[in-house]
Amino acid sequence: MAEHKPGTMNIKTQEATFAGFIHFVKWATILILAVLIFMALVNA
Q1: Four-residue CA torsion sign, 37, 40, 41, 44
Q2: Taking the chain, what is the end-to-end CA distance rounded to the nearest angstrom?
Q3: What pTM does this model have?
Q4: Which residues, including other chains, have CB under 8 Å from residue 38's CB and lie 6 or more apart?
């Protein structure tokens, strides 16, 4: 088995997954806030 050298692992997939997760969380937060503001405006 080859010895692992720190900093040599390919992490492109992990970086893409994390970027997708952050993108999803950002838009989900915006949507939730928009719904709450709409509900406040129509006295729900």
Answers
A1: positive
A2: 63
A3: 0.72
A4: 44
Give per-residue pLDDT as tens, 1-44.
778 888 888 999 999 999 999 999 999 999 999 999 999 999 86
Cβ density class 1-13: b for 16+ within 10 Å, e for less: eeeeeeeeeeeee
3 state DSSP class of 29: helix
Identity of residue 25: V
Query: What does the block give as tokens for 10?
Result: 């390919």
> Sign of dihedral through CA atoms 5, 7, 8, 12?
positive
Measured between alpha carbons, how far is 28 from 13 in angstroms, rounded to an integer? 22
